[in-house]
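Researcher: Checking consistency across runs. Here is Serine hydrolase domain-containing protein again:
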Amino acid sequence: MKTTHKCTAALLAALPMAGAANPIVNESFTPAEIYRVHDFFQHEGNRVKIQFPDVESIYAWQNMSRFFPTAQITRDGQVHVLPYALDENIGQLTATVHGETKTLDEHLNSYPVDGFLVIKNGNIVFERYNTMRKTDKHNWFSNGKITSGLELARLVAEGKVDPHKPVSDYLPQLKDTVWDTVSVLETANTATGLNATEHDEPNHDSRTNPEQPWFKWAVSIGLFEGQSEQTPLQTISEMHRRFPGGERFEYNSINTFIVSRIVESATHMPMNETVAQNMWQQMGANNDAFVAVSPTGGYPLHFFSMNSTLEDMAKYGMMLTPSASQLPAGKKIDNKVIELIQHSGNPEAYSKGFAGQKFMHSFYDDKVLKNAYQFDAIFEDGDLFKSGVGGQGLYISPSKDLVVAFFSSSDGQNQEETYARKIAQYFAQ
């Protein structure tokens, strides 16, 4: 008999029409229930809850365009149809999560995973959809951060941005602030040493406490409820130094917001258009993607809300692998860009913050990890991983020609990334 993780059981029990083991979200919610979810997020104090798994957010995560204004990331050209070459061994690979060793198939039966996809040499070798259809879009959450990191790395490789210059050289609104002492690279690698971090403040409540400076920044862009008389950059300008730059990997969406603005400053285009031209229109995407736009200021929120189908997120990852040659543009991201990311980062900084410690737990077989250009984990073999709140993930192995992509509706503790690493090790044999 199949066992079910307690989080899964509670969420499935709360879903409307929850008769099947894995009800499809967009087929299960009645119009009346959808209206109730909309009303829920309109109530004061509830918008902040969209970042946490619950029955309302489970619906929102597959329908973010109902809750935020959006900017489109348009596709173009021929749709690339991914061929199949299924490998039954993948579902039998094992990993240990929360003290239990299970196969991937058992894990996907036990945890609230919406979809899980593995592409090897351009072929779908493993595919599983639980609570979403192949055509449904899902929020990437912080997976979207790499869209900014990758575009910045491209500009650095092309000599259009100097990573060692201070941030204020590219964003003059931050002149005569602490950002005169913070380099572009420290920001890209989330190692600024400044306060207003997302997890590492003393009380670990930055995303829920209205008195925390990170929360106040989220209010300034309209992501969270509240009144702010400052622009987002004015709020950021009040940050101050806690540690020397480059010493600690301290996860922070403010850094991504800054990186996005630097990319926009260098390209003179909005981030969503840059991602569309450089990636989405080159990869044979199935559909347009979209990104939430801040209610205040109209900023594309790539740190929080890229949305696409699972296949299209995987195709985005394919653009960093040799299989990109099969996609309509016929070319992958320049090796100089990929190597710039792989060779950046500081392993000694990795374990000094919340996020690094979390991923060291997930990747328990790997002793040397680092982060760079908004990727959460860079391995000694050059593989790359990025996660998002609620259990979203994109694992890319340029050398193994491998992509693992997954969406979840969890508390972020599923550790699908552990299985992604095991799959990469399986193909390395």
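Researcher: Does this match what you'd expect to see?
Model: One thing to look at in this run: Confidence is low (pLDDT under 50) at residues 1-9, 16-20.
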